[in-house]
Amino acid sequence: MTQHLFMVGARGCGKTTVGQALARVLGYAFADTDDMLWRSTGKTVAEIVAKEGWTGFRARESEILTSVTQGNAVVATGGGIILSAANRRFMRARGTVVYLHATAQELSRRLRAYPEDDQRPSLTGKPMIEEIAEVLAAREKLYQEAAHHVLDASQPPDDVVSAILQQLYPSAAS
Fold this sequence. Notes:
The chain has 174 residues and is an alpha/beta fold.
């Protein structure tokens, strides 16, 4: 049976880093919806948003999400994938959704350490910590609604992977 593990959470929470490590451990394929979007369009998230707006980007993001249907895979999603109720339903119906939760302070620290401005356009135009706190507050309920499992993403990636494995396979951990 095909099994998908969808990683959700705010930008900078570790969806790609943890997702890649988890895929290696499980022997699953790894997919990143932002990367898939770039490969299919030849444009970065910032370029798509500049040309089509957030609505156009979100529509493309949903198309990419539903195209991930073959084989066992860990899928790192964009931070806003949960804004669409259809995306939340799709992920829950097609696999297990893992919410990597981190505080605004931790996310800000990570984003400052590894800036990717061309990949991550501002959503509000506010200073980073304010924007992150505002976006988290607006999305927290949706992340929780989508998730089968919620994990603390402030730990090192290997620890987060171990915690995910313990949640997914509790009998193997004992």
